[in-house]
Design goal:
The chain is α/β, with parallel strands linked by helices and about 375 residues long. Helix content is about 40%, strand content about 15%. It has 14 helices and 15 strands. Strands 5-11-10-9-8-6-7 form a seven-stranded mixed sheet, sandwiched between helices. A three-stranded antiparallel sheet has the order 1-2-3, with no helix packed on it. A three-stranded antiparallel sheet has the order 12-15-14.
Length: about 375
């Protein structure tokens, strides 16, 4: 097929999905990301009937309702509806730093690796990447990274925490560690920003109120458009002064939306109705991980399978990531290869137990196809 990306479009005459401009005879099991979720019927109904106004004038009642709800849930004085998680992270950094400052980030964090260097290009900031323990920052490592007061060096201004951590397989920073990080940072006069794109996954997996993870941080970003299924948007939360500054930077970045209540309505449903069901995604991720971890040629660090993300090591198959993606795509399973050694599976709303089992079967079958083509020896694993 021409493209490795499933567009998600539907042929209206026949009800069949397009994939790379080609009508497929089946709907793919899309495990690339929880960003591919579709809004629920309740969200569509809410969007259709949402009262709206001009949000730049702070006059959209549905946006205001969403922001009030999010602030209460995240334990903050105020909240701001933004277009995306990337925009939310950037306005949070801009609102709490000065040009020339340095931020401490985990070395595989989304802010550092996947947000186009906005902290540097737009914020004029430098970043100090530090290692972690499977995505969980160590306060002692953070303390060593804080710059001394020296005119030759930038000023350390902020610590960024990602919870759950995407590139470590959806791992969780627990409340006690979050408290320790924030206590240390505040001791040094630093701000703490929580990139909580999937922070509700963390709270559901731990069985705790999300406020126990968000309250210690000075600012929080939480996505509505991943596992919570809203079609677009994220929330930034913090104290009133921070929100006022973030609103100004949102406008600067082109995020001053007008009748945004139409999409904010879906965000309200997301927060009210879609949080607890994230446990289902965690269960399907665990199902896939446990099954694939027993397949010869594949391996998974099960300690990292804490939420809805699974990293599968396929280095023993001696194939490329692009080839693996192509073979799986041909059989109706979509994943993202991370180079030539790992691929990522993300479960979400719309992926049921049957889908997880079928996807696992197909991955096993493709693994055998690769072995036959390359003449590799297949070893059984107990």
């Amino acid at each position: 097929m021409a493209s490795s990306l499933f567009s998600g479009w539907i042929d209206l005459k026949r009800g069949l999905p397009f994939h790379g401009g080609v009508i497929m005879k089946f709907k793919p099991i899309d495990l690339r990301s929880d960003t591919v979720t579709q809004p629920t019927e309740e969200m569509r109904d809410a969007m259709r009937g949402a009262p709206v106004g001009d949000d730049v004038f702070h006059e959209d009642p549905t946006v205001n309702q969403l922001e009030d709800l999010a602030a209460r849930m995240l334990g903050k004085e105020g909240a701001l509806f933004v277009v995306s998680g990337t925009q939310g992270n950037l306005v949070s950094l801009l609102s709490q730093t000065e040009r020339g400052d340095e931020i401490i980030v985990e070395e595989l964090s989304h802010i550092f690796k996947y947000e186009v260097g906005g902290y540097a290009v737009i914020g004029g900031l430098t970043a100090k990447p530090i290692p972690s323990e499977k995505g969980v920052l160590n306060p002692e490592v953070i303390e060593r990274a804080i710059r001394p007061q020296d005119i030759h060096q930038p000023i350390t201004r902020m610590v960024c925490v990602e919870n759950t951590h995407n590139m470590h397989g959806g791992t969780i920073t627990p409340p006690q560690r979050m408290n320790e990080i924030c206590d240390l940072a505040h001791q040094y006069g630093l701000k703490v920003h929580l990139d909580g794109a999937r922070v509700f996954n963390a709270s559901v997996a731990l069985g705790i109120d999300v406020k126990k993870l968000t309250r210690p941080a000075d600012s929080v970003m939480a996505c509505l458009s991943k596992g919570l299924c809203a079609p677009v948007g994220s929330i930034v939360a913090g104290n009133e002064g921070f929100i006022g500054s973030a609103r100004r930077y949102r406008k600067m970045l082109g995020g001053g939306m007008r009748q945004a209540g139409i999409i904010a309505a879906a965000g309200i449903v997301a927060l009210e109705k879609m949080v607890t069901r994230l446990a289902e995604d965690h269960a399907t991720a665990r199902l896939i991980a446990e099954r694939l971890n027993h397949v010869p040629g594949l391996s998974i660090d099960m300690d990292r399978v804490q939420t809805n993300i699974v990293f599968v090591d396929f280095s023993k198959l001696h194939t490329t990531g692009k080839e693996l993606e192509r073979l799986l795509e041909k059989r109706g399973v979509l994943v993202i290869a991370l180079g030539d050694t790992q691929f990522r599976v993300v479960t979400h709303y719309g992926i049921e137990k049957d889908d997880a089992e079928r996807a696992s079967e197909i991955i096993e079958e493709v693994r055998m196809e690769i072995i036959r083509k390359k003449g590799l020896r297949s070893e059984r694993r107990g």
